[in-house]
Amino acid sequence: MALYRASPEDGIAWVTGASTGIGRALAIHLARSGYTVAATARAEDGLASITREAEHLEGRIFVFPCDVMDEAGMARTVASIEKNLGPIVLAVFNAGTYLPVCGDRLETTNFVRSYRINVFGTLNGLVPISDRMRDRGFGQIVVMGSVTSFFGMPSAAAYGSTKAALNNLVEGLRYDFEKLNIRTQIINPGFVATPLTEKTNFSMPALLSAPEAARRIAKGIRGGGYEIAFPKRLVWPLKFLRLFPKPVVFFVMFRLTGWNKRSTGLRGRKRKDP
Fold this sequence. Notes:
The chain is α/β, with parallel strands linked by helices.
């Protein structure tokens, strides 16, 4: 029997992080394709405007505000969606944050918050929805990763490590989920123009718009395999680069990102030996 793949006729699509960026664009794209979409985010103002934007589409968007870091709240949100709209057959865990960190000003704050939102925020929704999909005998779960999960990148030690964790998490769960007829997919996009990427301080090759990223993700959800990675002109060179020794990787990344020209801010300071 073929592994389950969601369709608008089967039930509801749930998208987290739907108030801005890729999540917002994807929720609108799915509604345009006929899905009834449950849109979740912490920012209620962004969610209010997304319902107006979807008024004349084939499907509809309903908002369910919740902070993904609220474990109990996410379980209540899943229950509320299914009570008011119907079974969630497609869950897209997109909510995340990018908090840049640099080794010359290192602190724990951005690491902790990145893991709470990106990793545990995903788990807080994945656990209750996977229980329901298991009991129904079908479902599709999609998790937002990143090409920064391929190897360490400048200023992305927190963000990239959370996305690497999500890649490993989904891959590990896939063995059991497939037996339960739950399809799992990981999305590893390149650089996309969103409020998050405005925080970056290095060059972003092959930058895509959020609607274009949403179109590619939706195509992968409809007919793609386990990994949805794009754009190919960025993804394949990065994957090829992983085959090389680390000194080669560091050499290329220093120059690709322009990090070799960045000042650390430590020049002129005297090192204090203990």
